[in-house]
Amino acid sequence: MSFSTSKRKILQKLFLSTLYLSAFTFGGGYVIITLLKRKFVDELHWIDEEEMLDFVAIAQSSPGPIAVNGAIVLGYKLAGFAGIFFAVLGAIIPPFVILSIISFFYQAFKNNFVVQALLTGMKSGVSAVILSVVFDMASGVVKGRDIVLIIVMILAFIANYFLKINVIYIILCCVLIGIVLTLLRSRKEGAK
Q1: CA dist., res. 55 & res. 178, Å (int)
Q2: pLDDT in tens, 133-165
Q3: Rounded distance, CA 36 to CA 67, Å?
Q4: C-alpha distances in Å from residue 163, one per residue of 57, 123, 157, 170, 171
Q5: Residues with pLDDT less than 50, the chain
Q6: What Å distances lie between residue 126 and 22, 25, 29, CA to CA?
Q7: Cα gap 22→41, rounded to integer Å
Q8: Helix 29-36 and helix 113-143: axis angle, to 10°?
Q9: Predicted pLDDT at 27
Q10: Structure confidence at residue 151 (pLDDT)
């Protein structure tokens, strides 16, 4: 498989970026979303903020880890199927290596005071990063000034947090609302 110099550079940067982000991201997929945004939207300018929100929505609503799903969508957008391969490879190598090492030494880590203290401290940092992701995503919806989407966002939060409705039903309802809104808007534009 032969790639042009520019595509090879994109693939290399994509691999190294996802490898780096995956290696230094603790706390799950929601944490990596903020870092992906900083890297690919703010720093590299490869995608815009609206595309990033779309990627996050796709990654969240697809089965599997958010970090890998995000790498798949991002990799495909930037470099097609080769981009998927290199982005996913970069995203899965660090957790694979780290979890292999941890599982090998599990008994030693399980009761180690320092490790337990470190993990407890990391919970606070991870919570702050997740809050940052939620704020960024919500402010992106509010900046769009689409009252229907703002209402859907608020109702989805209420349904999940207060009414304890299963998130699968909420996602399915949001998908249905998105389809209806898209069809209505395309008809409206077609009528012009």
Answers
A1: 15
A2: 788 888 888 988 889 999 999 999 999 999 999
A3: 9
A4: 22, 26, 9, 11, 15
A5: none
A6: 14, 9, 11
A7: 17
A8: 60
A9: 64
A10: 94
